[in-house]
Design goal:
Layout: H1 13-22, H2 34-46, E1 53-57, H3 60-71, E2 76-81, H4 85-88, H5 93-97, E3 102-106, H6 115-132, E4 134-141, H7 152-164, E5 169-173, H8 176-183, H9 187-190, E6 198-202, E7 212-216, H10 225-231, H11 240-250, H12 254-275, E8 279-280, E9 288-293, H13 295-303, E10 309-310, E11 322-327, H14 334-344
Parallel strand pairs: 2-3, 2-4, 4-5, 5-6
Antiparallel strand pairs: 1-7, 6-7, 8-9, 9-11, 10-11
Helix pairs in contact: 1-11, 2-11, 6-7, 8-12, 12-14
Length: about 350
C-alpha cells in the first residue's frame, strides 16, 4: 500500500495500448511524424490556443529547467515559492540550463505566493541593480507542493504583477490536471486567459509512462527552443512514443477523469484524518493530503506496511502528532484507500 507518490504507480491501459499501436511500421524521426503532429494539435485544442508552440519532453525537471532557461538569461532572477519544485527538488537543473540564473524564493502559505508578496520581492529585485542581476521570470506551481490549487483569478492576480514588471509567467503543471479538476475550470481559463505565458503540462504523474509537454502561448517566446531542447537531450529520435502517451491521455478527456479519481481518493483520506483526531496542515484540494496524525495511528500504519513520506524537517517527538504527506494515484486500489481510511479513523488493520 503505497501513498508515497503518484510517481509510484503505473501507466493507464490506454497509454500502453497507444504505445503498442504506434510501434508498428516506420515513420520519420525526431518529431516529424503524424502522431507527434496530432498530439501537438490536440493539446492546442484542449488549451484553446491555436497559435501555441507545443513540444514534448520526458521529465518534469527537463520541462521546468528548459522553460526557465528559455525565458531567463544567465544573469536573470527567477521568482518562485520557497517550496517550489524548481527550488527544492531539481538538483539545480533550472540554474544549470540557464547558465547561472538565480532563483529568488518567496514565502507563502500552502505553497502559494500572494500577489503583494510577489510585488514586494520583484520591486526589491529591481532595486538591486547591476549587482543583483535582472528580474527575468515568475514561476508558480499548480497544484502546489502542498497540494493547494491556484484558481484562475489567483493566477491572473500574479500574472498582473509579473506583467506590470515586464516579466513572463511560467506555470509548473506537473499536477496541472489535478488543479483543473478541482477548480472546475477549463485548461484555457487556468492558463493563457489568466495570463500564463508558458506551461509545463504533466502526464507522468497522471497515467503516462514518461511524457510532459512544454507550451509557449506566444510563439515569439519559443524562438530557438528546439535547439535548446535538442542540446539538453530531450528530442527523442522516436518521438512518437512520447506523443502517443499524451495523445491517449487527451483523447476523450481521460486526463481529467484520472485526476478526478485521484482527487476523490485524497478527499476521502482527508475526511478520515479529521474524524480520527488528526489535523490537516493544508486544505486538501488535489490528490495529496498533508496532515498531522496521532502517533498511534502512524505506528499502526507503519505496522500495516503502508508507505508514505513524513512531511517537514522537524524531528519527531515521542507521542506527538506525526506530520505526513499522503499522495493518491488514479489507479490506487480502493481497498488500499479503505485500509488507510480505517486506520486514520482510529481503527486497526
Amino acid at each position: 500500500m503505497n501513498f508515497a507518490s503518484d510517481n509510484s504507480w503505473g501507466a493507464h491501459p490506454a497509454v500502453l495500448a497507444a504505445l503498442a499501436q504506434v510501434n508498428d511500421g516506420a515513420v520519420m524521426a525526431y518529431g516529424a511524424d503524424p502522431v507527434t503532429a496530432r498530439a501537438e494539435a490536440m493539446l492546442r485544442e484542449v488549451l484553446e490556443a491555436p497559435r501555441a508552440v507545443v513540444r514534448f519532453v520526458a521529465t518534469g525537471t527537463a520541462a521546468n529547467a528548459l522553460v526557465c532557461a528559455q525565458l531567463a538569461p544567465s544573469f536573470g532572477r527567477i521568482y518562485c515559492h520557497e517550496d517550489a519544485h524548481i527550488e527544492t527538488s531539481e538538483c539545480g537543473a533550472p540554474e544549470f540550463h540557464a547558465h547561472g540564473a538565480k532563483l529568488v524564493t518567496v514565502a507563502g502559505e500552502g505553497g502559494k505566493i500572494a500577489p503583494d508578496a510577489l510585488a514586494r520581492a520583484v520591486a526589491a529585485g529591481a532595486r538591486a541593480g547591476l549587482n543583483g542581476g535582472r528580474n527575468a521570470l515568475v514561476s508558480i506551481t499548480n497544484a502546489t507542493e502542498w497540494g493547494r490549487v491556484y484558481h484562475p483569478r489567483e493566477v491572473a492576480a500574479l500574472a498582473q504583477v509579473a506583467h506590470d514588471a515586464g516579466l513572463p509567467l511560467h506555470m509548473d503543471g506537473a499536477r496541472f490536471a489535478n488543479a483543473v479538476a478541482f477548480a472546475g475550470c477549463s485548461a484555457a481559463e487556468m492558463t493563457w486567459r489568466a495570463g500564463v505565458d508558458a506551461l509545463c503540462f504533466g502526464g507522468t504523474k497522471n497515467g503516462a509512462v514518461a511524457a510532459e509537454a512544454v507550451i509557449f502561448f506566444d510563439p515569439a517566446l519559443a524562438e530557438d527552443f528546439d535547439y535548446r531542447r535538442k542540446q539538453a537531450g530531450q528530442v527523442w529520435s522516436k518521438s512518437r512514443f512520447l506523443a502517443a502517451q499524451m495523445l491517449a491521455l487527451l483523447t476523450g478527456g481521460l486526463w481529467l477523469d484520472l485526476a478526478k479519481q485521484a482527487n476523490a481518493k485524497a478527499a476521502r483520506l482527508a475526511e478520515a484524518v479529521l474524524e480520527g483526531g488528526g489535523t490537516l496542515l493544508a486544505p486538501t484540494e488535489s490528490n495529496a493530503v498533508f496532515a498531522a496524525i496521532p502517533a498511534l495511528t502512524h505506528e499502526r500504519a507503519q505496522a500495516a506496511g503502508i508507505l508514505y513520506h513524513l512531511w517537514g524537517d522537524t524531528p519527531l517527538t515521542e507521542g506527538a502528532p506525526v506530520p505526513v504527506r499522503l499522495v493518491c494515484s488514479w489507479d490506487m486500489p480502493d481497498r488500499d484507500v479503505a485500509v488507510l481510511e480505517m486506520l486514520l479513523r482510529g481503527g486497526c488493520a
